[in-house]
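Translate structure to sequence.
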């Protein structure tokens, strides 16, 4: 589901913000690092396991990175789910 979402997002203009990855690794590896952030994994899991139109609620104890924030906004546009992300 992560790969499918990534493809759909890129088709809608999403570009991974690899500049926020501070590791000295290749660009493709930076995209891989970004793709396994907890918010993205949670959204992908909930998209698999819920009906369209269901609200997806995510509560985190860390701040959401700018890449995840951008990605979440685009997912709202291309799916029929409402997504609520909240920091503790």
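Result:
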């Amino acid at each position: 589901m992560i790969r499918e979402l990534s493809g759909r997002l890129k088709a809608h203009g999403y570009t991974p913000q690899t500049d926020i990855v501070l590791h000295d690794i290749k660009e493709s590896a930076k995209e891989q690092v970004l793709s396994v952030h907890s918010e993205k994994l949670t959204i992908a899991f909930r998209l698999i396991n819920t009906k369209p139109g269901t609200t997806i609620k995510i509560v985190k104890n860390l701040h959401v990175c700018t890449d995840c924030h951008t990605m979440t906004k685009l997912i709202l546009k291309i799916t029929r789910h409402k997504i609520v992300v909240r920091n503790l």
